[in-house]
Amino acid sequence: MGKKITNSLGIELPEYIEGYGKVKPFMGAFYYYNKENYKTASRRIKNHKPENKKLCSSIREAIEKTGLKDNMTISFHHHLRNGDAVIMLVVEEIAKMGIKNISICSSSFTNAHEGLLEYIKNGTITSLSTSGLRGDIAKEISVNNIMKNPVIFRTHGGRARAIESGEVKIDVAFIGTPACDEEGNMNGSEGKSAFGAMGYPMIDALYAEHVVAITDNLVKYPLHRISIPQIYVDYIVEVESLGDPNLIATGATRITKNPTELLIAEKAAKVLTGLGLIKEGFSFQAGSGGASLAVCRYLKEYMVKNNIKGSFVSGGINAYILELFKEGLFESLLDIQTFDGSIANAVGNEKGYIEMSASMYANPNNGSCVAHKLDMMMLSATEIDLNFNVNSITGSHGIIMGSIGGAPDTAAGSKVTLMTVPSIRKRMPIITDKVTNIVTPGETVDILVSDRGVCVNPKRKDLLDEFEKNNIEHIDIKDLYDEVISLTGTPDKVQYTDNIVGVIEYRDGSVIDIIYQVKQ
Amino acid sequence: MGKKITNSLGIELPEYIEGYGKVKPFMGAFYYYNKENYKTASRRIKNHKPENKKLCSSIREAIEKTGLKDNMTISFHHHLRNGDAVIMLVVEEIAKMGIKNISICSSSFTNAHEGLLEYIKNGTITSLSTSGLRGDIAKEISVNNIMKNPVIFRTHGGRARAIESGEVKIDVAFIGTPACDEEGNMNGSEGKSAFGAMGYPMIDALYAEHVVAITDNLVKYPLHRISIPQIYVDYIVEVESLGDPNLIATGATRITKNPTELLIAEKAAKVLTGLGLIKEGFSFQAGSGGASLAVCRYLKEYMVKNNIKGSFVSGGINAYILELFKEGLFESLLDIQTFDGSIANAVGNEKGYIEMSASMYANPNNGSCVAHKLDMMMLSATEIDLNFNVNSITGSHGIIMGSIGGAPDTAAGSKVTLMTVPSIRKRMPIITDKVTNIVTPGETVDILVSDRGVCVNPKRKDLLDEFEKNNIEHIDIKDLYDEVISLTGTPDKVQYTDNIVGVIEYRDGSVIDIIYQVKQ
């Protein structure tokens, strides 16, 4: 197994992982700040003549023109989420061409990509890097170790960083775009498949050796609002459909009716207002999901009553947040990925609704990112432990079933990070002594709000003082844990094989945890 | 003197030029297309922590933080043209700090930068690269060879190419911006010094080792419309004033009343309409200047009468072109540099008025540029010769007094390139047997319109056929030349020393001509 090293969270890591490479251990949220000296990635200079044409008659033709071959890396974005058809269109064609051993670097995968399983099994796809993974593929990887190489999980900021630094070298970026002209100027907010902000592929376009735009809406040159300009685009393919934007928002658009979630939301709102954080000019990010929206509703009431206007909301903008913005409760929105197809057109049409790249959103290795400007952020999780370490990638059964998103990025950047979690889910304790896998380190998580009480990370003495000063109820996380365990009992520890099926990178590219194959 | 080589225009060049480097000879407009294999430039990865602050209390502090020292290269943009105060503010501070041997890579210099002469003479500044140079500095360089190194003249597209390819390595980019927030998000269209599109520094920001934003309008975070995002910015300095945007448009905003220019404009319009080029969906670029505007007025009349709507106008957008756009005569504007402070705010506020980077405008070494999409472009010049080679950088006395701009870029890219020139200016022939210096090669120049007749480049047999077919009057350029010379006499040839004071690069980085010191 080779030599082992231990990261600052006490997790033992191999020095080298087959199919991944040399391991840089996680040593703290900003440990590597200004400690490394590396350069931005470089790529072949493109040439252009006026008579050149970029339009191809098929995906096959575009793939052939890029010279894609065995062992190369391709990239995608997942802005169409559960409605995305692009990844499968391209991968099916690659498979037909007999190309093997392809690595996919996607901003994420959704249930629209279950079809990849076939191409993983037949050796077309042998590496995945992503923010999240769910469903059958995730289960097959966790239980049956079907991938040749471990899946690399990256944060949204970490993916931008990895591409910019050349750690990930993309040979061909395939960018699905609902509006595109014949030179490849694109935006995400016009056309029948409009999905809104296109923050992820903005980075791919800058650094990929070849860029293929795939569109179902070829418009007259020049496109009037440009998110990715023609200078980065080599080939363009027109297809029937990019997918179904109605499937972008699934479940997460309505405020929850679940009584436990409503209770948690109310508690969270009380903490935030009680601490005086909801004040003129504050900024925040709330993840998607019903509990988050419920918190937002409470905050809105408070803001209106107290005549408070916030600065910006970042994220993941959904219809509810857009409504708050339109009502004048926030000055601007910073959006990397619109969480609702029905508001896709607002990006670029509402003054102050700003589209941002993944690098601008959350990359720690640039001039500065929006995540570092946040006053507060709320996030949910699959588990949280006594050290406030957060898991959102595996369930307590050890199986991959979630995603990282921008959680570690915004948790590290925002002044206050608040977790909302039910204390028990399906009879399993969500507050644990040790999370199955660490995605967001406890040092960046400040407050835990559960149905059974609010806990403050003891490292945040300043916050504890504020809790005391403002008489906000809170309990020790150990007490909460004991209460939960007294109800659920201590669950059996998951048994693993020695096979590494996933590597979880922190935003700075260090390895924060490893996912092993679950022993059945 | 070392070995000599001859470029495809028959100009003898040294193989190596001291203070410039190895010479790549110009061999044709697209000769180097896909013949070279080089990569995009790379730079040190930046790091950021939430507590970092970019605001500096003075230009001095920002310069110190960048670590600027002797022999480094700094960059500027000239969007404020004759009203720019930023270059002198920075250079004066650098001089006070005792830093020597600085190279300046500016998108251009104007008469606002006459003060540089002092700093050239005292050794603070020893290299310049620019699109244009006029006034005392230009004269001192031409006549007294005061620069340590030859001035490098680049096209707007060529400058973007040189920066992207790493041929120019910018250590510190100083970007004057009329709207900036505390993280460095910038645009050019808001604030008291608003100048409009900021196409040039968009490239500097991407590749410079350090980026300093200089603003006289620090706004609340986040700025609502972002042309250059915070991820590229290291330091920010607030100053009293960036300069005077009223001086951007000087002379060139009103339609000429000069009868010769009006005659040329009328002839040009007749050629363009006669050839059927003014048709639904056509695109064009007209340079600045009164004659250009006069042509536009004729075109407007024709378009309105014939119910024609154009596609886009690129450039250099001025108030007259904006008016045509607002009247619905064009679908969009693509602007790299707004030619009138009074319309600075229109960029980003008028749907279809698109801001573009210098690379998107005219760089031949990217996915594709706007210059390559033009149906026609008009340009003016200081001289044109029997081979249709165009000079716009030196006068017939050999002294530097002009600029290249995007002329060679758009001439190479557009389907039809039309030159408007008076046949005689101040008793000097403008049609010559051989131009003093070549800036735009004749192979990319198609039609010459002068007060004494219209000539067609014999290489464009297709155009000659169209002239015949449409009964458009035209004469042989040799006949025009003979007529002009019979009136002016043959001027004495300029006498030069062996000292090279300027190197004129074609857009692809090859050397198209060399400027020698004039013998007095």
TrEMBL record, chains A, B:
Reaction(s) catalysed (UniProt annotation): citrate = oxaloacetate + acetate; citrate + acetyl-CoA = (3S)-citryl-CoA + acetate
One matching Pfam family: CitF
Sorted UniProt keywords: Cytoplasm, Lyase, Transferase
Record GO terms (molecular function): citrate (pro-3S)-lyase activity; citrate CoA-transferase activity
Subcellular location: Cytoplasm
Domain of life (superkingdom): Bacteria
E.C. designation(s): 2.8.3.10, 4.1.3.6
Classification via NCBIfam families: citF
Protein known as: Citrate lyase alpha chain
